[in-house]
Specification:
The protein is mainly β. Helices cover 2% and strands 40% of the residues. It has one helix at 84-87, and strands at 8-11, 20-28, 33-41, 50-56, 71-72, 78-83, 95-103, 110-111, 116-118, 122-127, 135-142, 145-155, 158-162, 170-178, 190-194. A hairpin with a 4-residue loop joins strand 2 and strand 3.
């Protein structure tokens, strides 16, 4: 077996999910131990978490090395060390390294003006951008299952549309998901969908505080169908 030594070139690319990784102090000992420190540059939110995969030119960057790095978070300096003789094995000449990140969480921040919506009415949703392709799905979930897609393969970070009129009333989870990675989604956000309201309803003879005005229960009936108010005593 050849010893792991010599000059090593490595690739520092703009990695998947438009994220950046800083690699410092890449060294190889005479015994073939490879070591380096790395950190992720934060672009989105404190929810960011990534896995790091290391590829080499030995197999034309086809399979990642069997090196466990653990979860990386922005601003966290991580030191990685492994035995190149054991992990990479025989080689001739210099080796190129390719470091790739993959998101563990989907750290976009979703913004809503309110959390309660009526059927058939407009809903406006904004979220922070994350990856370069910019394609997202916006869906309503219940019990972990998608029950309605508001929009799919959407490019951009804003959606304005109407909820369907036939959607069932209830609690939903609103998710923003990258269209090309369905295992990731935004942080859980609960919204409530209701039917159209019927206005203020107060019991017959009740007085609206501070107004001195009587309100009768209408239940949506026409005005002619309202019960006749009781007369003034003595009439």
């Amino acid at each position: 077996m050849k010893y792991f030594f010599g000059i090593i070139f490595f690739l520092l690319t703009r990695l998947s999910w438009a994220q950046e990784l800083s690699i410092d102090q890449l060294e190889v000992s005479n015994e073939g131990v490879v070591s380096f420190t790395c950190s992720v540059i934060q672009h989105h939110s404190s929810r960011e978490e990534y896995s790091l995969f290391i590829y080499t030119s030995v197999d034309d960057f086809n399979e990642p090395l069997n090196v466990e790095v653990g979860t990386l978070r922005p601003g966290q300096l991580t030191t990685v060390s492994f035995d190149g003789n054991e992990i990479i094995g025989d080689f001739d000449g210099n080796i190129e390294f390719d470091f790739r990140l993959k998101a563990v969480t989907f750290p976009v921040e979703v913004m809503l003006e309110k959390r309660k919506f009526k059927k058939g009415k407009k809903i406006n949703v904004r979220w922070t951008d994350f990856h370069e392709s910019g394609w997202y799905d916006l869906e309503l979930y219940q019990n972990g299952e998608s029950v309605h897609r508001l929009i799919g393969n959407h490019r951009g970070t804003y959606y304005s549309g109407k909820l369907p009129k036939d959607i069932k009333s209830g609690e939903y989870e609103l998710r923003v998901t990258p269209s090309n990675e369905k295992t990731l989604h935004s942080e859980q956000m609960s919204v409530k969908v209701t039917s159209k309201g019927k206005g203020l309803v107060i019991g017959a003879g009740s007085i609206l505080a501070g107004s001195g005005v009587f309100y009768l229960i209408s239940n949506g009936n026409k005005e002619d169908d309202l019960p006749t108010p009781p007369g003034v005593p003595g009439d």
